[in-house]
Amino acid sequence: MVPLPARRALLAAVLGPAGRRRLPRHHAPAAARPSSGAGGRPEAEGPGRATAMLRHLLLKLRATGPVTVAEYMREALTNPGQGYYTRRGGIGESGDFVTSPEISQVFGELIGIWYISEWIATGKPKAFQLVELGPGRGTLTDDILRVFNQLASLLSKCDVSVHLVEVSPKLSEIQALMLTGGKVQSNPEDKSAYMKGISKTGIPIFWYRDIQDVPPGYSFYLAHEFFDALPIHKFQRTEKGWCEVLVDIDPEVPDQLRFVLSPSSTPATENFIQPEETRDHVEVCPEAGVIIQRLACRIEKDGGAALVADYGHDGTKTDTFRGFQNHKLHDVLRAPGTADLTADVDFSYLRKMTQGRTATLGPIKQWEFLKNMGIDLRLQVLLQNSRDTATHEQLLHSYDMLMNPKKMGDCFNFFALLPHHRLVRPDKKQKPESKSPLPPVAGFGELLLK
Fold it and tell me: What would the pLDDT profile of 381-421 be if each residue is shown by its tens digit?
């Protein structure tokens, strides 16, 4: 965090009146699904109706036998032809789930201030990349870029670019419309970025399918509700030892799926279960571990920081795999390809997978992070500038959704990766009196306004 006077200036610069935003529906708190795989009451389906994805999976299972939960999630979410994200990507009021940026622009504004704060704390490098993984509709990046524009005088000597990692063609079109007004072009001459454009405020934007395609350099990474959608392996402790939870055809209802246990250990149980594990049911996301390793390597080499915001736990929860359809819990095995599938992020696993290359902060609850970032001050200014009762009530409702521990305040967590030297000054021969204190990291400590 930058020194308090400068921090106040950052807040003040973005505390102008904000445009109204339609408030989407309530995002249900992340309640753990029963271990039977029910995921809540299933949505009604027509008699005999089978999705194209279900037919594809039934053929696959008849040919190969049971598949891991990770393989099932990968097919249901990102299959090129029938995957949920590649076809639908139902974010927002008319979709299947709502995210914090869709509820209030204040959320994105405060994250934008977080990155500016870190940029200042590390000496205002001459260039930085904002890299978002899974940008959804582009709402969060749009809010952050508005902050950057309002602080244009501060960033005038910094070369800023935006890099979005997105596998969904449909969502990348929505993002392009949101961020550039649709003024983008395909990028065939560049094999890494498949699309590029210029934001409404003049900042270059590039789209990629993989984090490895993003150019190296000093970067701020953002993963908001990204890791929870990555495929997980599920394991169950039994009398015979650890077995893996698999997905198979239900022999009693041949056009439906069910969970089964592997008859013995699998390669995944041998590689992903830690000897010290005390839980009886464990979910592991190897893909998340690989991505965190890549982010940690990049930050260690090039500098920057990564901010992860997601619902999750610190190595304590067990069975969290669930589905969402039309803002309601949905049976994860019913009508695959039509619902969002998700599992809580294990932040203790992410911390371990940095392999010490970076320092980590958190996880801390969303309400605490936003409070530390000054959301109460921002709300006061918006309320003072609201001219009608409807806007006033909407602001209070949005604040309650983000901050109430029974809603999103406790469900979501913030977690950061930072270079070690950002938290602990390198041990060099230096006069003790010449060592100035390192600025604290915004959001992870209380903001004191004197």
Answer: 999 998 889 999 999 999 999 999 999 999 999 999 999 99
* Edge-to-edge strand ranges of the sheet holding 340-342: 328-330, 322-325, 340-342
CA distance 418 to 441: 10
Tell me how far apart the alpha carbons of residues 169 and 373 are, in angstroms, rounded to a whole number: 34
Closest CA to 348 of 303, 283, 304, 403: 283
384 contacts: CB under 8 Å, gap ≥ 6: none
The tokens for 3 are: 């020194």
What is the Cα–Cα distance from 129 to 122, expressed in whole angstroms?
14
Question: Closest Cα partner for 51 from 41, 40, 59?
Answer: 59
Measured distance CA(82)–CA(347) in Å, rounded: 30
| Whether the predicted pLDDT of 433 surpasses 90 | no
Ranking 279-288, 311-320, 372-381, 430-439 by mean pLDDT, the lowest is 430-439
Q: What is the mean pLDDT of residues 270-283?
A: 95
Find the radius of gyration of the CA atoms of the chain.
23
237 near 280, Cβ under 8 Å? yes
Whole-angstrom distance, CA of residue 424 vs CA of residue 418 = 11
C-alpha–C-alpha distance, residues 132 and 199, integer Å? 15
**What is the amino acid identity at position 429?**
K
Residue 130 bridge partners (DSSP): 162, 220
- Identity of the amino acid at 223: A
C-alpha dihedral, 110 to 112 to 114 to 115, nearest 10°: 180
**What's the half-sphere exposure (Cβ side, CA atoms, 13 Å) at 282?**
24
pLDDT > 60? residue 66: yes
Which two tokens mark 66? 């049971």
- Alpha carbon 151 to its chain centroid, in Å, reads 25
On the question of pLDDT at 26 being above 70, the answer is no
Res 80: pLDDT: 87
With beta carbons less than 8 A apart as the criterion, state whether 410 and 358 touch.
Answer: no
Q: pLDDT averaged over the chain? A: 86
* Partner residues linked to 233 by β-bridges: 284
- pTM of the prediction? 0.86
* Identity of the amino acid at 55: R
Site of tokens 């990348």: 172
Task: List b or e across 315-336, with b for residues whose CB sees 16 or more CB atoms inside 10 angstroms.
Answer: bebbbbbbbbbebbbbbbbbbb
The one-letter amino acid code at 107 reads F
Q: How far apart are CA 90 and CA 124, in angstroms?
A: 38
